[in-house]
Known about the structure:
By secondary structure, the chain is of the alpha/beta class. It has helices at residues 2-17, 41-50, 70-81, 101-112, 123-127, 142-148, 156-170; strands at residues 23-27, 29-30, 55-58, 64-66, 68-69, 90-94, 98-100, 118-121. The chain has one domain (2-170): NAD(P)-binding Rossmann-like Domain (Rossmann fold, 3-Layer(aba) Sandwich). The strands form 4 sheets. It has a two-stranded parallel sheet with strand order 1-6. The protein has a two-stranded parallel sheet with strand order 2-5. The mean pLDDT is 91.
Amino acid sequence: MSKAVDEFLLKAYVLQKGLPGVVARLFNTVGPRQVGHYGMVVPRFVGQALRGGPITVYGSGRQSRCFAHVADVVPALRLLAHTPKADGLVVNLGGQRSVTIQELAELVQARINPAAPIKAVPYEEAYGEGFEDMQERMPGIERARDLIGFNPIRSLEQIIDDVAADMRREDR
């Protein structure tokens, strides 16, 4: 709810005060130096795989997400900030390849440590009773494409490899 209020306030300032501003909604932006806290699943899975596992999948694993590399998103943010046609708009930035969390765990396992087991953990055990998760998150990026030509080019495999390489450097 508070995100919607923030978006409305920005639009009001743009319209009433003539100030430039755009809301960028980031969908699972991932890359080097990111930690696995606060629900960030890619760095959490990569860290677990590097430590030998288990790679913990919360819930059924059938919930799906899209991931974008930070190196694709940051230039898009800069372009949006300097695009007057974007003023007052809400623009989604994210990847376009949808994967289930189970598929993500298997991909991390295959790329980082095939011996790391994958362990399913029920939501109730991880978060307590009554936790609900969105089953699918897929950003519509048409507006970003139209405004600034946004088209993320880095693959999920490259995201995983870049996060793993950074974590390995940190361990030195």
